Amino acid sequence: MAKVRSPNYPGISLVEAVSKVQAVYDKEHRHPADKEVIAKSIGYGGINGASLTTISALLKYGLLESVGNQLRVTEKAETILLLSKGQSDRVNALREAAFAPDLFSELRDSFGDKLPSDENLRFSLVKKGFNPKTVDGVIRAYRDTIEFVNAEEALASDASDDEQKSSEIPIQTEIPMQPHVERSVSSSPSTNAKPPGANGNGKYASVEHSLFEETIVCRISQDCKARIHFDGLVTYEGIKKLIAYLELSADDYPKKDLQQLAADAQPQQLQLQMQDL
């Protein structure tokens, strides 16, 4: 008869464990404390089955560590608690904590970060020798832990994409009206600009004083060109303000279909005038 394994897994998910260790950190920071003090700081009356299960989970995730006969919050837990959601060091610490329990590490090796169905997980655990009556708790804790880590990683990915897009914005932004754009930039600074080194210390003048003129010529229709002249440093915020101004002014101009009707009406009016003559 196959030996039934006791599921040595954290009794709570990582998201709940982080909440519990936050309560410990708020009261004790990283000072060592007796186990009974730890139990009371996370909301229990003292040492009992429930408090021991929670403390055991915090130890398995690496959020608490033993210091002699006492326990204290780990450096990894402090990183998770002090950094904002989505920060890379926090995400790395969470991922390390999630797979610190041996069983969760085994499941990650078997299934990766994308979870299978509960039935698949249950069959796999029972096949490994776990008691069928206890595997549902394992599955619930593991699934909640993986979803928590994946959500944090998604935040980190979004933040990284936003930072990359921000770094790719050029100082001189080309207005995307039409692909045929002519640009001319004068090689001389404006009359109000101070030349580099004018401050007398041998260093170049700051960017605020290095101002250049720039003209963008853009064809916006078959018989119309727009000419935009910049006199000074062009910034991303300035371009956005210019776009907003143009959008507000758009209603002051006739739409293309009205212009076409007016153009079509001119030959007819001329023909009627000639007939009257």
Describe the fold and architecture.
The protein is of the alpha+beta class and 277 residues long. The chain is built from 10 helices and 5 strands. It has helices spanning 14-28, 35-41, 49-60, 75-82, 88-98, 102-111, 118-127, 135-167, 236-249, 256-276, and strands at residues 64-67, 70-73, 181-189, 212-221, 224-231. A hairpin with a 2-residue loop joins β1 and β2. The longest helix has 33 residues, at 135-167. The termini are far apart. Residues 155-202 are annotated as: Disordered. Residues 184-193 have a biased composition (Polar residues).
Biggest sheet layout: 3 strands, antiparallel
The quaternary state of the protein chains shown equals single chain
What spatial order of strands do you see in the largest sheet?
Answer: 3-4-5
- CA distance, first residue to last residue: 116 Å
Give me the secondary-structure category: alpha+beta
SSE ordering: HHHEEHHHHHEEEHH
Q: Give a count of the beta strands, DSSP E runs of length 2 or more.
A: 5
Shape, principal axes of CA atoms: elongated
